[in-house]
Amino acid sequence: MREIYDEYEAAGRLRVPVAAWRWATASGVAPAADAGTRQWSRATVEVVDAEAVRASLRGPAGASWAADRLTEALGEPRRFRPPVTASAIGHLVRAGLLTYLGAEPAYPDVHPDQVAALARRRDLPALLDRHVPLGPDQAAHRLGVRRTDFDHIVRLGWITPTGSVDIDYKRQGGVTTVPLYSGEDIALLPVIRPSVDWHALRTLTAGRRSPLATLTPTPQGEKRLLLAGVARIVGVGRAAVVNWRRRHPDFPAPVGGSTVHPEFDLRQVVAWLLDHDKIAVPSGVPAATLTIGPALGAGAAQRFRMDDPLLKLTDDPEDEDRLSGWMTDTDADTLAHLTTAESGAALRKLTAPGTTPLAVPDGLHVIDRFRAGTGGLHVTLAWPAHLRGTASPRTAGGVIRHGLPYPAPTTWCRCARQTCGGIIPTPHCADHGRAVEPVMEWHPADGIRCVNLTR
Known about the structure:
By secondary structure, the chain is α+β, with helices and mostly antiparallel strands. The chain is about 30% helix and about 20% strand. It is built from 17 helices and 18 strands. It is globular, with a radius of gyration of 29 Å.
């Protein structure tokens, strides 16, 4: 009789699916291999409860299903993070974060409960960056730039592939080798290249020439940093870096330069800064800041933070604008309470990436909130698009509003004229001051109403 069993033979001996045996050994239902790598002794196999092994697996999940669950856990939609793909599940299995249960290793079957546990981890974005490489299109998405801009980044030598994969396009050109890049290296680019105007790069429209096109490739020597360069990455003074070097014996040794102006390897410096929490891998876009108060203006306004914000501004005045992102439980509950009134709440000031500060006088409501497993709440806000306006530069915010005069202004009127045809009246104006109101139709400054008036 056989004395040593591999996983297939052990599963056959117990008459259970091999996927169930794999999961049982990974989850502790069955003993770990005791006769070599992925091999079990006969005595070990014979004492295992076959029914317990069979019951431990409710059915393996495919890689595509698992990828969709992890994408949902990240919070959709996200501007700068591509969806998790089925091939990413294979990388997570090889990293030991998921157990291989069968099918093609590149697109493995996994346990749904283990996927759910991984989706609940708050460090899921960091785990994906660390273990899942990205192709050029995914890398451009992760960085928030156009593909042509990412090609320039590669040309300049700011990032190099960590591997490659062969893709067979069959009738579309045969086998093509696609380079793969570290997700962590991609996310760190805006941190370690502070001289680049990343906001301008990320907001370039189609057809515009990349500002990186005029730059020449980085010579090998420029991958070295002076102490001042290290300080720029962290956002501190040179003296602070000198102090770190003196106090920490594991600070990278110079690779060139002089005693007075030593040079350090960029990769070694970045690794040291990460290990000592001097910098962090960005996990998403900058947060949005909202100042919200009662719609009628009575009562103090409160400030809220929203991570990974996505702002959708409609061109239809009859439609709604929407803002979604992640908030803490406390902020989400407070915000929901503020917006329960029939008229909603007033958005005194919204500062979000990619737009000028906005404000809405009333009508702000929470229309959706759900927990996707990463520890926070995903909240969606909406307001009537025709009320959107520019926020006042004052700290308290508030909507700057224009007046559309019913009568034509006289020649001596000194009220500020706007491109929409409206004005910002002064209190002492005989045509438009407070003493002669109402003589105007009000609308938010630079809001969708102003867009309509310019047509």
